[in-house]
Amino acid sequence: MSVSSAPSPQTALQGAPGDAPVQAHRKLANLQKVIGERIIGQHALIRNMLICLLCDGHILIEGMPGLAKTTAAKALAEGVEGDFHRVQFTPDLLPSDLIGTEIYVHEKSDFTFRRGPIFNNIVMADEINRAPAKVQSALLEAMEEKQVTVGHHTYKLPELYMVLATQNPIEQEGTYNLPEAQLDRFLMYTIVGYPTPEEERKILDYDENRRGKTSPNVPAPVSTQAELFAARRACADIHVDEKLKQYVVSLVSATRTPLDYDAKLAGWIRHGASPRATLALLRCARALAWLEGCDFVSPHHIQTVAPDILRHRIMPSFEAESENVSRGEIVQRLLAVVAVP
């Protein structure tokens, strides 16, 4: 997916060159392009990271080792104005290693709170499923409320705050499944696949070209956080027809009462999606429409973001698991049986 930096007269990006939404769109378009030059393929991953950035949400990235999950997350962080910190999650990690802790200052004869890495603008939780439940739960309040409570004090997180978490789907020894409550707090759950043979050849060429050279070009940062916030406001102004709002509601409702839509779907779903899914579908569809230079949301935008929003919010039944039906296949069946307005 590519983003045009020269909007058409029919788009929502009309206005003088100095308009904040226009400038923000150009910067994010450039950011997407430069990240795409560093990460061969993985277009959906790059798109979804930008959507989460625009929607003020968090993203969980799952894939096999060596598929550039960490590199893509670092490339995004380098392209956004703000502080970035990477935390390698391990079985011996403690909540205080993430949040911070109170230390006793002898000179003051009092305790002072020393902030942890969670207080940065963009936090990368690498291999999040390797940390125990206590550490994972420490992220819950931060991800949802943008604040951290230590003792009797509550500390606010930055206005620009995003968690990019990665996990390995195959190495289960020494890992801990993320609780459903935490999964629901991730706006999107993206699965990264292997590159195509053509993309892998480009990866070889890219590696040969950069060998012996200095570090690769750093993505051009969004000049100010104010521009990013202007882009978020512009996304919120994208028009959504009432029929499409009802379509979003119907998609989520079908996960809760699947028998009303399709008998096979009813046999595959044990529990449906929460209201967070409804809100996320509309917000992400608006962000995708804005990224593509459209001034309104279409069914295509909703259907494009639906798999990454719904796959971690529905619980497959035992029948689906016994038939090796993936969550992605369940979502595709859902999109096929719910009528498009």
Q: Ends: how far apart?
A: 25 Å
Name the CATH superfamily assignment of the largest domain. P-loop containing nucleotide triphosphate hydrolases
Named at the architecture level, the CATH assignment of the largest domain is 3-Layer(aba) Sandwich
Instruction: Describe the global form.
Output: globular
Unreliable stretches (pLDDT < 50, length at least 5) are 1-18
Question: What is CATH's topology name of the largest domain?
Answer: Rossmann fold
Q: Could you give the order of strands across the largest sheet?
A: 2-5-8-1-9
CATH class of the largest domain: Alpha Beta
Task: Profile the largest sheet.
Answer: 5 strands, parallel
Entry keywords:
single chain, 341 residues, Rossmann fold, Helicase, Ruva Protein, domain 3, 2 domains, 5-stranded parallel beta sheet, two-stranded antiparallel ribbon, disordered N terminus
Q: How are the elements arranged and paired?
A:
Elements: H1 20-38, H2 43-54, E1 59-63, H3 69-78, E2 84-88, H4 95-99, E3 100-105, E4 110-115, E5 122-126, H5 133-145, E6 147-150, E7 153-156, E8 162-167, H6 180-183, E9 188-192, H7 197-210, H8 225-236, H9 242-256, H10 263-268, E10 269-271, H11 275-291, H12 299-310, E11 315-316, H13 318-322, H14 327-337
Parallel strand pairs: 1-8, 1-9, 2-5, 5-8
Antiparallel strand pairs: 3-4, 6-7, 10-11
Helix pairs in contact: 1-2, 1-8, 2-11, 8-11, 9-11, 11-12, 12-14
